[in-house]
## 1
Amino acid sequence: MQTTNVTCVICPKGCNIEVDHENRDGKEVVLAVRNNKCPRGYKYASAEVVNPERVLTSTVRLAGGTYPRLSVKSEHPVPKTSLFDCMREIRKVSVTSPVKMGDIIIENVAGTGINIVATHNG
Amino acid sequence: MKMNVNVAVIGGGPAGLAAALECRKNGIDNILVIERDKQLGGILNQCIHPGFGLHVFGEELTGPEYAQRYIDMLSDTDIRTMTDTMVLSLTLQKVIRAVNTTLGVVEIHAKAVILAMGCRERTRGMLRIPGTRPAGIYTAGTAQRLVNIEGLMPGKNTVILGSGDIGLIMARRMTLEGAKVSGVYEIMPKSGGLKRNIVQCLNDFGIPLHLSKTAVEIHGRERIEGITVAAVDENLSPIKGTEEYVECDTLLLSVGLIPENELSRGAGILIDPKTKGPVCESGFETSVPGIFACGNVYKVYDLVDNVTKDSVLAGRYAAEYIRSKSE
C-alpha cells in the first residue's frame, strides 16, 4: 500500500488530503481517503491517484466579435495527459460571431469524448 | 450632454453589476452603469480559468461565465449601461464627468454613486528593480489580457516575478500556449497565491517556484534578454554572492494589487493608507454621504464570490440611502 498527499484544487481552501492506494494488476485502487473536508475533495483526491484530470480552458479565434478571441473550456475535466493534444486542436479553430455561452465549439476534443464549449457570448 | 440618474455605478465588473442589480431589486429605478471597456464583466472576462462561483452559484464557473451570468441578469432589467465610456472626474456633489466617442463629454448628476472601479497591478516602477528599460516586461494581468482577449503572445521564454495568483495562472496559460516558463521567483518565504494554483498551475507543468529569491537586475537593450536573481535574507535584502543569471525574453510581474482610487481622491473621499481603499464606517458608505464603494476598489479580494456578496450589501445600502432622501 502507498499513501499519497494530494492538495485539493477544487476550492480555495486547498485541503491536504491523504489517499491510501495500491496497484492491483496495473491499476491504482483507492483504499482510503482522509482529511478531505467535503465530498468533492474525496472525488478529486481519488481521481488524482487513479487518473488525474483537469478542466482545460483556452480561447479560439473569433471573427466579427467585440474582441478577436472567444474563451472556451472543456465541458468536463480531461485527462491531464491529453491537455497538450487538446490545445493543439483548440489552436486550429476559428468561429464567427454570434456565439452563445455553452455552444459546442469542438466535439470530442482529441478523442477524449469531451466537448469544448464557449464560456461567453461572442 | 447632461443626465440625471438615481444611482450611477462606476465600473461594470462583478462589483458594479452585483451592486446595480441589488439596487434595482430594492425598488430603485433610473440606474446607470458606466464601464470603460467595450464590454461589461470587468477583469473576469480575461480570467478564463475555472474556480469562480462555488459560493454564489454553487458550481464551478470560469470568469467569463460568471460575468456572462451577471450580464444576462442585468439585461433582463431596465438598468442602463454605458460601455466604452471613461469617467474623468467625480465631485463631492456626486456629479460625474464622463466621455465616450458617441456622446462626447457627458455630465451625470446622481443621487447616489457606487464606486466599483476595481484595482490595478503594481508595476516595475514600484519595485524599483535596477537595470535597463527594455521591452518585454509586463504585469501578469496585462499579459493575461493580451493572450486571452487580444489573442497576442507576449513572448516565448518567460520568467515570472512574484507568486500572486495571476502570475501562477499565467505560468500555466503561457505554457499551454507553447511558451517556456522557466520559473517563478518569490521574494517571500511563502507564496502569496492560493495552494490550488501552485498545484495546478506550477506542479502540473513542472514549473519551479523559487522562494526567498528576487530579481536584482534587468538586462537587455531593446528587448529584455535576462534577469539576475539573488537569494534574500530575512530582511528581504539580496545576499551577495547568490546572484544567478536567468535568460528570458519576457518578464511577468505578479507582485500585488492596489485599489484604483484616483476618482475617489478627486472627490475628496478619505482613503485608508493601509488598504488604499476608501474609509467606510458602515454599510460600504465612504466619507462622503451617498457615495458607496465595493469590490476591489474598496479592498483587494481573493475571491470574486466575496466581491459579489459585499457588493450586494453596498447596493442595498445605496438603495436605502436614496429612499431615506426621498422620504
Note: The beta strands of chain A are 2-7, 16-24, 27-34, 53-54, 57-63, 69-74, 78-79, 94-96, 104-106, 116-118.
## 2
Amino acid sequence: MLSNLIKTEWLKLRNYRAFWLLLAVTAISYPGINGIAYYGYMDSIDARTQSGKLVKMLLGNPFAFPQSFHTTAYLSSFFTFIPAIVVIMLITNEYMFKTHRQNIIDGWEKSTFIAGKFISVVLVTLIVTFFYLAVASVIGTIATADIDQAKMLEKSHYIGLFSLQVFCQLSIAFLLGLLIRKAFIAYGVYIFYSFILENILSGFFRMKSKKWGMDYGHYLPFEISDRLIPLPPFIGRFNEADNKLAIAAIDKHVLYTLVLTAFVWLLSFYIFKKRDL
Amino acid sequence: MPVLEINSISKAYGRIKALDNVSFKIPKGSVFGLLGPNGSGKTTLLSIVLDVLQSDSGRYNWFGESPSHLHRKKIGSLLETPNLYHYLTAVQNLRITQSISGRGNEEDIHAVLEKVNLHERKNSRFSTYSLGMKQRLAIAAALLGNPDVLVLDEPTNGLDPVGIAEIRDLIKELAIDGHTVIMASHLLDEVEKVCDHVAILKHGHLIACGTVEDVLSAEDCLLLSAADQLLLTEKMRAYPGLLRMNTTAEGLECYFAKGASSAEMVNRFCFEQGLVLSQIWVKKKRLEEKFFELTNE
C-alpha cells in the first residue's frame, strides 16, 4: 500500500519539469544566500584593517563548525518560500487538471490522495534539508581552519530543527493550496501572509506584550516554527537577554510545531474527505 | 444481481435540486444509456456513484455491496472531461491509472493505446493532443485492464464522425464480450444504436427507465392515409382507445395505448366506416422523438 502510494506520487513527479526546475532554484538559492553572507563576512574581517580585527573579535566565525549548522539554517530559512511554491503547485495542479477527481474515480480513497501529498511534502522537505546540509557542510569545511571532529557536530541538532521548520511551513503552504485551489491566489496569500501580514501581527503583539504580559506573536502560524531557529549568536549577542529566552524556548516550540503540523494535516484530511470534488 | 442499484438519491446545490429521489437498477451485461438535457443531473448522478460527489440522501450499491474504493478500482470510468496530467505522455498517464487502479500492466497500456489509435503518439505530452485525442486517451484509461464495468460520460465528446463510429463499434464489442457499459450522452442517435437499456432524467427527476424497446413503445403509433384525409381524421376520432392524433406530411399519426389496437383492427374499422386506406404503417418511434416528447415542457 505505502510502496504503491510512493510509486504513484513518484510517477507524477518524475517527469514534471516545473517541479525539478523550482527545486533547482532552491538548490541555487541556498548556497547563494549563504555564500553571499560568508563572503560578506570574510570581507568585513579583513585582517589588514583595524575594523576587520574588531569585527572578527565581535562576531567570531559564525560559518565555522559547529556554528555553521545554526547560521546556514537561519539564512536558508528565508528561502522556504521557494519549496512552498513547489508544494502549492503540486496540489493546485491536481485541481487544475481535475486529476484529484480521476485519482478517486480510479480507486483511491480520499484519505489515500492526501496521504500521497503528505509523502510528496516529506520528499520535498528531505530534498531541501539535503541542500541545507550540503551548504552547511561545505561552508563549514571552508570556514573552519582546524576541524575538531569531536566538536564539529555539536550543533547538528539544527538539521532536525531546520527540517521540522521546513516541513511545518510547507504543510501550511499545502493547506493553503488545498483550500484556495487556484495556484496564483494561493502563492499570493502565502507570500503576503508569511512576509507581510505575520510580521505586522508579530510587531503588534510585541508592542502589546508588556500590557498583556505575554507575546502572543510567538504563536502565529509561521512564528511557531520560525522560533525553532533563533538568531545565530553573532547577531543574537546584540540582544543577549531575548536571545537566551529564544534558545530556551526551542524545546517548547518543537512541541508547538509538531502540534500545528499534525493539526494542518488532520484538517487537510478532513476538508478533502468532506468536500465535493 | 444488478451491477449498480440506485435508491432514492437526492442532491441539491443550494436551492437547485440537481437530483430528486432518483432510483433505478442497471442490469449486468447491459449497455445502459443515461439521457437528459443539459443540467438534468446525468453527470451529478455519475459523480455520486463514483464518489466524487456526496449525495444529500439515498444510497447506492455496486455489485450488490456497499460502495467502496475497491469497487471503483474494477470500474473503468471517464467522467465529464479527460482528467489527465498535461505534462505527461499518454504512456506515463496510463501508468498512473494502472498504479492507482491496479488494472492492467505495461503490455495492456500499449494494447489500449493501439485500440484507440493513439499508439503513434504514445510518447507525446497530453498537452499537445487535440480534443479528440485527449478523449481517446481518457477512453483508453477507462479500458485499461479490460474492466467488467465501464462508466462513460459523453464518450464521443470532441470526436470526429469516424471517431464516433469507432467508439460506437467499441461499445458494441464490449457488450458482446459481456461488459456492462453505463453511458451518459445527449447524442440520442448514438444511444439508440448501442444501448439496450435507457434512463431519462429531466431537472433531476427520473422520467423514464427500462429497456429501449419498453421506453420507446409505451404507445403504439399507426400512420394512416386515405384519399379523403379530412374524412379519415373525422372518422378516426370515434375509434375506441385512440389516445391522440397528429396530422403530418406523411399522413395521419394515430396513437393508442400499447397493445390496445392493431393495423388490422384499424383497417377493418375504416372499411366499416366506408373508407379505404391507401396506407397503413406501424410507425416505430425513434428515441430522439420520445426524448423530446418526454423532456419538453
Note: The radius of gyration of chain A is 21 Å.
